[in-house]
Design a protein that fits this description.
This is DUF4397 domain-containing protein. It comes from Pseudobacter ginsenosidimutans. This protein is mostly beta strands and 265 residues long. The chain folds into 2 domains: 101 residues, Immunoglobulin-like; 111 residues, Immunoglobulin-like (Sandwich). The chain is 12% helix and 38% strand. The strands form 5 sheets. Strands 4-1-7-8 form a 4-stranded mixed beta sheet, with no helix packed on it. The chain has a 4-stranded antiparallel beta sheet with strand order 3-2-5-6, with no helix packed on it. The N terminus is likely disordered.
Length: 265
């Protein structure tokens, strides 16, 4: 009897010990997810493609801002420079609230309340789209092409946040779909390396409905170095850019289908 009792007690202690170890491992895993990065932060670039010209305040506190005027403002559908639409953080789980700039009274709520799961030293693009009453977002981890200091090149990709159907892309004068055969709604393409020498002049991209080949929008990439003999800020040389289709088919005003440049470097 003593032997049997000792055996049961031993098993009981083993089970308790294993439970404690398992709980400890789970707690360590949870804590490690919340601990700030030791090294370089992650960077998130925001693109506001919401309907009807809705502009946003971005807040990282997880609480209602005391003063909205101190929050980062994300304008609607414009040229986005990496210096003006980015947040950097060392938090692996970063709270992010996006508020409409016209809805900041005490009874209002953010359009989007998210906890972004991020990795150290990583780059992300976050696209906010839809209408104000049903705003959505897509967080995409980016692989930005490496610099090529000795080559006059640029890197271009497309993102489709303006058409419920797949799109295709071609350069003017070339067959439909020859640059990109198909990109679904909410899709983000791969970066394509292109010549960025001054002699290029410009690239004229035609964005079409993939099925009907109807022309939806045009984007001209130009100013590869000089304008009227003067040096300009070069948006293309050794840079990576996303061309984002926004708006609605046959849309007008702020909902017209247009392509906007999002600069990553």
């Amino acid at each position: 009897m003593v032997s049997s009792f000792s055996y049961r007690c031993c098993n009981h202690r083993i089970r308790i010990s294993m439970t404690v170890i398992l709980l400890g491992m789970l707690m360590l895993a949870a804590c490690s997810k919340e601990e700030p990065f030791v090294g370089s932060p992650s960077t998130v670039q925001l693109f506001n493609a919401l309907d009807n010209g809705t502009e946003l305040y971005a807040d990282l506190s997880g609480n209602r801002p005391l003063q909205f005027k101190t929050a980062l403002m994300i304008n609607n559908k414009q040229y986005y420079d990496v210096r003006t639409n980015s947040i950097s953080t060392k938090q692996p789980l970063q709270p992010l609230d996006l508020w409409s700039t016209s809805d900041t009274s005490t009874h209002d709520s953010p359009l989007i309340r998210a906890n972004l799961e991020l990795e150290e030293k990583s780059f992300y693009s976050m696209f906010i789209f839809g209408n104000k009453t049903a705003a959505e977002f897509l967080l995409h981890k980016d692989e930005i092409p490496a610099l090529k200091a000795n080559d006059s090149v640029t890197f271009i990709r497309f993102a489709n946040f303006g058409n419920a159907q797949p799109i295709s892309v071609n350069l003017k004068g070339e067959p439909a779909g020859s640059f990109m055969q198909s990109l679904p709604y909410k899709g983000i393409g791969e970066f394509t390396e292109m010549n960025a020498r001054t002699a290029v002049g410009q690239y004229e991209f035609e964005i079409r409905d993939q099925a009907s080949e109807e022309l939806l929008a045009v984007f001209i990439a130009d100013n590869f170095g000089y304008v009227n003999g003067s040096v300009v800020i070069n948006k293309w040389y050794n840079k990576s850019n996303t061309l984002v289709l926004t708006g609605h088919y046959n849309g007008t005003g702020p909902n017209e289908q247009k392509v906007y440049l999002m600069n990553h470097r």
